[in-house]
Design the sequence.
């Protein structure tokens, strides 16, 4: 049987639409290309991790940091609420990224980003928990203060009023004293400004106006008592010469003329008297 010529074939010739249908769709081609790029990136990441873990190659570590630094910045922005500079949060997140890179094992089946996100977020939360407190508070008390504040916000709408310490304690499962301690600790996280008015009476007095200042008079009084005790080791003439020199601020020549001795003798008396006072003060200094 003779083959049917192409001109006499029963199949209709391909149209322009049929030819277009056999061509890869642009969207499908883009998806395929993206999958190939993703696979290539994962393969490259595994290679860098393997080299870093096996050889300690610092260049591979730096390449991984540069590759995943946008992830750290993205997580840092999630915690950017204005209370902390974004640059500081990025540094904290970057530190978490370094820890994740050092801990990650390329033998894991999970992707590195899945492994790194909890580590970076944990570092950010630790930063706010530790550095956000103005006064050092024990870790368990910090965590309890956060729980108390959260439960207070949750119970308020339900009760239609602020919950009592007993109600919060029963809800959390701690004692009332612990709730009160946690509330006191919250003041270390949000200290009152010293520029805040002392009352609501509209006066110009601020909290800082009620803060005591150091009074130098107490130190002078203690020094006077100590000097009085030390002066007892000197003779009457030595005490008088020292008084004229350091209290009345006379020169050695003027002291010599008043006491009736030479200027050289006055100099020698002052030097010896001061040395005796220094020796007498040593036991008191060591006791202090």
Sequence:
């Amino acid at each position: 049987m003779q083959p049917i010529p192409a001109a006499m074939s029963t199949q209709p010739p391909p149209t322009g639409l049929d030819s277009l249908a056999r061509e890869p769709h642009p969207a499908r081609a883009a998806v395929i290309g993206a999958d190939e790029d993703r696979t290539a990136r994962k393969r490259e990441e595994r290679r860098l991790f393997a080299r870093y873990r096996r050889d300690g190659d610092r260049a591979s570590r730096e390449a991984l940091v540069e590759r995943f630094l946008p992830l750290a910045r993205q997580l840092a922005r999630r915690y950017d609420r204005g209370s902390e500079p974004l640059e500081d949060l990025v540094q904290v997140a970057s530190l978490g990224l370094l820890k994740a890179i050092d801990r990650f094992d390329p033998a894991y089946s999970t992707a590195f980003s899945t492994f790194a996100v909890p580590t970076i977020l944990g570092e950010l939360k630790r930063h706010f928990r530790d550095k956000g407190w103005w006064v050092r508070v024990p870790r368990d008390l910090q965590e309890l203060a956060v729980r108390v504040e959260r439960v207070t916000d949750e119970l308020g709408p339900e009760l239609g009023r602020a919950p009592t310490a007993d109600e919060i304690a029963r809800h959390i499962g701690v004692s009332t004293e612990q709730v009160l301690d946690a509330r006191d600790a919250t003041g270390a996280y949000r200290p009152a400004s010293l520029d805040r008015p002392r009352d609501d009476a509209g006066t110009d007095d601020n909290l800082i106006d009620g803060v005591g200042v150091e009074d130098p008079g107490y130190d002078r009084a203690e020094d006077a008592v100590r000097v009085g005790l030390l002066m007892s080791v000197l003779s009457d003439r030595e005490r008088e010469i020292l008084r004229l020199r350091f209290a009345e601020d006379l020169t050695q020549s003027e002291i010599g003329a008043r006491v009736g001795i030479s200027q050289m003798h006055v100099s020698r008396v002052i030097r010896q008297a001061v040395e005796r006072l220094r020796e007498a003060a040593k036991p008191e200094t060591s006791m202090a």
About this structure: The domain at 219-287 is CATH 1.10.10.10 (Arc Repressor Mutant, subunit A).
